[in-house]
Amino acid sequence: MSQALGKPNELLGPDDPEPVGIIDRGDASPFVLICDHAGNAVPAVLDGLGLEPAELNRHIGIDIGILGVSERLAEQLGASLVFQRYSRLVVECNRRVTSPDSIALVSDGTVVPGNADLTPAQRSLRLDEIVVPYHRQIETILDRRAEAGIPTILVSMHSFTPSLRARPFQRPWQIGLCYGADTRFTTPVLEALDDETDLVVGRNEPYGVDLNKDYSIPVHGEERGLPYVEFEIRQDLIGEASGQAEWATRLGRVLPAAHRRFTVAAS
Known about the structure:
Elements: E1 20-23, E2 31-35, H1 53-57, H2 66-77, E3 80-84, E4 106-107, E5 110-111, H3 120-147, E6 153-160, E7 175-178, H4 186-194, E8 201-203, H5 216-222, E9 228-234, H6 241-266
Parallel strand pairs: 2-3, 2-6, 6-9, 7-8
Antiparallel strand pairs: 1-3, 4-5, 7-9
Helix pairs in contact: 2-6, 4-6
């Protein structure tokens, strides 16, 4: 598969979607939601990365169901939401550029032909036109709130596959929380989830936060000193609209309850 070279602003063509989706509801809510893997778009010039559409539609290409949950949850909370429209296989918005899987050659057993033998210029185009605008929009909202002295809870939304092809194992957790050094808000969220019934909750399962490789929580949360929570919801539970609505309602109970506990503990 060939890939056209170009200078900045030439990767995304006129018919390609904007990389950043944003629902800006102002700053009344204590929460700001972000969704790194909401979409599976591929710039037209990249010819689908040489993959069948089915590959882009599975978990390696998109966090299945999470945008539907995030949109509903943000509406319930009156919160702003920033989300990424392009596939993580084009470029991974939740990795530092030094991470080897920033642009993956293989993902869960699938070879990605369109990511092989990229020049530095080709890699830079993906970062400059897809990753940078996304994180700049997050920074804009967080900076605005900081300048106004508005306390912020960062909520990072993800979903995970019930089982990997490369390492088959039926993951038992319906939801997992991922965290690094700062657990100020994660702890009350875990407590609030304990009040829910019949949940198997992962603590840094199926993933944790890698402060050296990951980007969103380490940079926008840990480095800023913002309390945060990162959710991973199992994809078979939110693949349909009914499950997305159910989980948005559940987290719409959990987050305010956790925020009340957090506020009391901080006072």
